[in-house]
Structures are given as C-alpha cells and as structure tokens.
C-alpha cells in the first residue's frame, strides 16, 4: 500500500520563553514530503524528499537526513508518540563539511525502514511525519536583532531555532515486531564476553591503554559530578549563580529541581551502577548510547583525542552520555557546542535543562565560574 503525500514548506520557529512571544517565519525555498510503504514482510518504509525550490543553493545539516544519526521522524500511535530506540550521539559543533548542499531544483531522496528503530509493535492508527529542529539546521547564522525581556535580574534573549517538517501520513498497522533495532552503528564487531575491572566492563576490543584511559576518565567524571551536586545543593532557584544561568538560563524552582535531580541521577549511575564501555565505534564523534539500554557507552574517535578534563573532555563526555539514559535523566541533543548551549539557555531554559551538552558544560565548568 502506498500513501500519497503533500508538500509543506520550511518554517523557522522563533524559540521563546513564553508562548506569547512565539513567532514563526516561513522559508519557502525548501519543500519536504514523506511517502510511506508497507511491505509484505512487515517492513514500514518511509521515503523522504527534500527539494530546493529557490533560485540559489540551500544547505541542510546532514545529520537530520539520516535516521541512524538523528530521531528525524515524529510517529504517533493513537495520538501518543512512540518510543525511538536509535542512538544518541555526542558530537562536536557542526562544521561546513557536515552540511548537504542542494542546488536550485535539486531533490534529496532517501528511504528508511522504520520498524527497526521505532516502536511499531502494537496495533493502532499511526501518524508519521518528518519533523526536526536545530539552531544549526541550515547553517550557523548570527542571531538577528534580539528581543530582550527582563525577568527579575535575568535579561532573556530569544534566538531562532530552525524547524523543518513534512506532511503527515496516516495509516493503520497491525503491529510490527522489532527485529533490526538497537544495533551498533558503523562499529567493529564486539569480541567475546565483557572484560570487567572493579565493576566497570569493557567490550569492543578495548586495549589495555584504552581501559586505563577510560577508568581515569570515569574517576574524573565522578569528581566533576560530585562537584556539580555539591554546587547545586549550595545554591537555589532564588540564588542560582552565573554558572547555572550560563548553561541553564533563568531559574525557576521546578527547573532548578530538575537539574539537581538529573545530576543526582548521573552521580548515582557512576557510583552504584555497573557501567560498560565499548571501544568499537569508528565514527568521528565522541560517543553514543542507546537511551533504553543502560549503562553501556560506545566511545568513538574524538573521545580518545580529547583531554581528560576541560571543555568537551573525556570526563564530560561520560557525564553527557550517562545523562541520555532514560533510567538516568533522559536528556536529548537539542544543540551541540558551548555557543549553542549558551544560546539555548538564553532563549529557552525549558529546553536547556533537557540538553545533554548543557549538563556536560555545567559539570566541566570551563571557563571557571562561581
């Protein structure tokens, strides 16, 4: 069965602290459509088309055109969003090489099998659309004239978050058993059973030097997490400090309590859970995890070249990845990099407290802030 699609244009959703400040501008240069096929073997295939309708070249961050890189589809069953079982990465901030360039009139077409990474196991009415957003979706831009609003002593700036979405396809599914999900992405085969040292396990052919580096980084991650917990306990929503506001924005009692709870959970994971580190990832990123599979962290190439402490460090990477687990803090990757995290804290504190890099940078605290 093939379901026809209609084409919607790109929107730029201006992120705001209150709904009354939200505004949306349209960019009609890109058009997006999704078709869905159900195969006789039960596979559910979504075909994504992104067309440059403008006269000049357009670009889009490649991560948001690849289901093995990002959670790019919004799928609901009977009105409730289903679980996504794919990996969550820690990456460096995007560079020009991370963007796809579309010439005028050019269409990017890609197909994805959905049942391996989304929970389509139950019968119901499903609604499927392509739906992504990022500060960097169409390339870094200088934040235009900011809207400034004083909230107590906090001056809040509202930066633009770019959003790209498609039509919605509706269909009934009897339920598709997951058979291909939760697999390693571009990883070497994992050799044998896990090798464990004092409750920390290693898979993916970790060398002795890599094991030593991991254990040292884990100890450093414990130190900066303990510092974060102590720091948050010594402050409050009414006295949050520059450090808190830099990475999480304006404090409310609920947001502050969420951040405290997140760091307590990260600390508990380091101190009390059996952690596994896998050395098999060949990607250029720092690391990734499957949020529904605690507590296994896949370490990638950038991890090994990072400093143990400091910005985007090995210790911070461990904090970042542990925060992703649903059993810990369930954070997401809304923005990457210190600049993006600071902008997010200024523009949308409610999202900042859900952002993994924001937690990492608060814990690393470089440059140092009281």
UniProtKB/TrEMBL annotation:
One of its GO terms (molecular function) is metal ion binding. Residues 230-364 form the Lysine-specific metallo-endopeptidase domain. Keywords: Hydrolase, Metal-binding, Metalloprotease, Protease, Signal, Zinc. Its EC number is 3.4.24.-. GO terms for biological process: proteolysis. The keyword Metal-binding applies. Its cofactor is Zn(2+). It holds the Pfam family Aspzincin_M35. It comes from the Bacteria. Residues 1-25 form the signal peptide. InterPro entries: Fungal_M35_metalloproteases, Lys_MEP, M35_peptidyl-Lys, MetalloPept_cat_dom_sf. Belongs to the peptidase M35 family. This is M35 family metallo-endopeptidase.
């Amino acid at each position: 069965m093939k379901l026809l699609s209609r084409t919607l244009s790109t929107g730029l959703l201006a992120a705001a602290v209150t709904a009354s400040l939200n505004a949306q501008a349209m960019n009609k240069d890109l058009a997006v459509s999704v078709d869905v096929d159900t195969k006789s073997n039960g596979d559910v295939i979504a075909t994504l088309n992104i067309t440059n309708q403008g006269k000049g070249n357009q670009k889009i961050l490649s991560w948001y055109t690849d289901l093995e890189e990002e959670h790019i589809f919004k799928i609901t069953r009977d009105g409730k969003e289903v679980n996504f079982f794919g990996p969550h990465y820690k990456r460096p901030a995007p560079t020009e090489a991370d963007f796809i360039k579309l010439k005028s009139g050019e269409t990017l077409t890609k197909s994805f099998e959905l049942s391996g990474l989304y929970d389509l196991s139950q019968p119901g009415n499903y609604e499927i659309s392509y739906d992504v957003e990022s500060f960097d979706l169409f390339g870094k831009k200088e934040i235009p004239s900011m809207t400034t609003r004083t909230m107590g002593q906090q001056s809040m700036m509202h930066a633009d978050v770019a959003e790209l979405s498609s039509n919605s396809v509706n269909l009934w599914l009897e339920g598709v058993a997951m058979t291909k999900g939760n697999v390693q992405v571009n990883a070497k085969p994992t050799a044998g059973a896990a090798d464990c040292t004092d409750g920390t396990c290693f898979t993916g052919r970790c060398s002795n030097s890599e094991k030593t580096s991991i254990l040292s980084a884990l100890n450093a991650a414990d130190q900066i997490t303990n510092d974060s917990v102590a720091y948050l306990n010594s402050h409050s929503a009414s006295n949050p400090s520059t450090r808190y506001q830099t990475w999480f924005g304006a404090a409310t009692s609920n947001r502050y309590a969420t951040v405290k709870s997140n760091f307590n959970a990260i600390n508990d994971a380091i101190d009390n859970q059996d952690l596994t580190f896998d050395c098999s990832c060949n990607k250029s990123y720092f690391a990734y995890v499957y949020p529904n599979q605690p507590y296994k962290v896949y370490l990638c190439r950038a991890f090994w070249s990072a400093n143990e402490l400091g910005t985007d460090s090995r210790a911070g990477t461990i904090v970042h990845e542990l925060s992703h687990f649903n059993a810990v803090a369930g954070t997401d990757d809304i923005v990457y990099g210190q600049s993006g995290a600071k902008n997010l804290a200024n523009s949308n504190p409610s999202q900042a407290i859900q952002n993994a890099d924001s937690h990492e940078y608060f814990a690393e605290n470089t440059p140092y802030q009281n």
